[in-house]
Automatic annotation (TrEMBL):
Alphabetical UniProt keywords: DNA-binding, Transcription, Transcription regulation
Signal peptide feature range: none
Species assigned in the record: Mucilaginibacter arboris
Domain HTH araC/xylS-type: 220-318
Domain of life according to the entry: Bacteria
GO molecular function: DNA-binding transcription factor activity; sequence-specific DNA binding
Regions annotated as coiled coil: none
Name of the molecule in the record: Helix-turn-helix domain-containing protein
Amino acid sequence: MKHVSILPLYDATLTSIDSSYQLFSRVNDFMKYQGKPPFYKIEVTGLTKSTKFSNGLYKISTQMTVNQIKKTDVIVLPLLCGNFKKAIQENKKYTDWLIAQYHSGAEIVCLCVGSFYLASTGLLNNKKCAVHWAAKNEFKEMFPNVKIIDDSIITDERGIYTCGGGYSYLNLLLYIFEKHLGREISVLASKMFEIDIERKSQNPYAIFIGQKKHGDELVLKAQELIENNPTETLTVDSICEKFNVGRRTFERRFKKHTGNSILEYIQRVKVEFAKKYLETGRKTVNEIIYETGYNDIDAFRKIFKRITDLSPIDYRKKYSV
């Protein structure tokens, strides 16, 4: 039997704590129906016997305190909300225990932006971490030693599991069940809770937000030029000529500060422009593509699918309002 400790972190969402507790508990029910013993012992494990959430709106009773848990097998870090820096500070009292448990063999299952706290412990240094697309820039600034993964929903590295995207933690829990008990139990949980087990990528949901907290004025001007002219046929050469800079040097400079090449930045801005029209407009897909400044329709369709994992037509079907 694996012991599961769900930590009611400061600024955690009550939903992610309860969902984790319910899913692990239901897996035990599945085992019971199959005539097998329960696989998990699940306990909400806090610093004290009760924890308040949402400015005192909710209170949760913990079953154990960390001081009482000498050895655990799985630690669940719930999704956080609000001010990440404050949450990190308030949750520091868990850190020594968390690190000690990990080095004693415990797996860490980190839900979405609970990764801000996990990264603050140093356990994610030089490891991959799935980060919600909206939090990517802030996370990168705070934790430059972590390898950000912003397209995949789940990462799995040396006993630490992370996920990006609010309720993608449900997919992460299915992944954990498959690791521990096999595909059959994971599929059963997917069916019972109606969770899309095949959801693997954040790309269809992401909104492009350029990294601008770098302080390089010339790169900022280039970003603004691209963002303010999504219908123009901009090229890398034309941008470099406008700012009177050498292409090779400026491309390295741009990539260093934004995480994208100049060409990638142009493409992402144009895709974002097209997405808005696909969501709300009535123009044909080809008309929208032409408005982005592309004459080669097939080329833009390929770029669009590479960035979003969907064709323009499928994107319109999914998100049109």
